[in-house]
Amino acid sequence: MAAETASGYIQHHLTNLTYGQHPVNGWSFAHTAQEAKEMGFWAFHVDTLAVSVVLGLIFIVLFRLAARKATSDQPGGLQNFVEVLVEFVDGSVKDTFHGRNPLIAPLALTIFVWVFLMNFMDLIPVDWLPKLAATLVGDPHLYFRVVPTTDPNATLGLALSVFALILFYSVKVKGIGGFLGELTMHPFSSNNIAMKILLVPVNFLLEFVTLIAKPVSLALRLFGNLYAGELIFILIAIMFSGGMLLGSLGGVLQLAWAIFHILIIVLQAFIFMMLTIVYLSMAHEDNH
């Protein structure tokens, strides 16, 4: 495969199906990566949104089906799987969350399963779904990325939703005064009034950076790991066009990386869930 062809193949697989307002074409789908860039911040990544919604519906339908058919006599495989998963998440919440909030366990379960399903899309061969989408639409050059968590817009959206809950419960539990006190009276403090006033901007700077780092770290950690995994799968896929020997090596590498990547997709979903629980636990702690 020529270098420019390989480069184009990689570029095509890393470009989202984008819909937005183009300065020249108006509201339309982007036909090139440059057009997608020119649409600016408010463009929609249609593939990310569509795959995320479909996976969310699969999660809801499967768990709803398990709940409707739940029985204590002879539970089926789906019920056993769901029960193990629910008990695992519930145990993680009880061990980590020290407040009392009925929202936390369902939220943790939703995050873990939904993020796992989005990560799992990385194990589907890189050409299958894009070619299927291109065939259905009738456009062989259609852009279509199938792993939502390789899109920073998706991971940042998840992280900002968690961040909004952190702010909400921080104010609800501690009050406005308590929340602002945490931002301005820690980590440095003094009994001297003048010194305490002087330390306020220093404390605020340190605590504000710590606060903002929470959604950023949540989003970038998930995005970075899955983006790297997707890129490796794409690079391995290029090897299949290099002849029988190189293609055979690519098949071995693809299988090895897929097996290792199973650990990554589970671990990243677990980390996102656990950090969410930890951050919300901290938001519920009233430090006087």
UniProtKB/TrEMBL annotation:
| Compartment(s) where it occurs, according to its Swiss-Prot or TrEMBL record | Cell membrane; Membrane
List the transmembrane segments: 42-63, 103-121, 154-172, 193-213, 225-246, 258-282
* Role of this protein: Key component of the proton channel; it plays a direct role in the translocation of protons across the membrane.
Q: Which family does it belong to?
A: Belongs to the ATPase A chain family.
- Kindly provide the name given to this protein in its UniProt entry: ATP synthase subunit a
Q: Which domain of life is it from?
A: Bacteria
InterPro entries (UniProt xref): ATP_syn_F0_a_bact/chloroplast, ATP_synth_F0_asu, ATP_synth_F0_asu_AS, F0_ATP_A_sf
Q: Which gene encodes it?
A: atpB
Q: What is its main location?
A: membrane
Q: What are the BP-aspect GO terms?
A: proton motive force-driven plasma membrane ATP synthesis
Q: How does it sit in the membrane?
A: Multi-pass membrane protein
Q: Which Pfam families match?
A: ATP-synt_A
What are the record's GO terms for cellular component? plasma membrane; proton-transporting ATP synthase complex
Task: Give the species.
Answer: Ectopseudomonas oleovorans
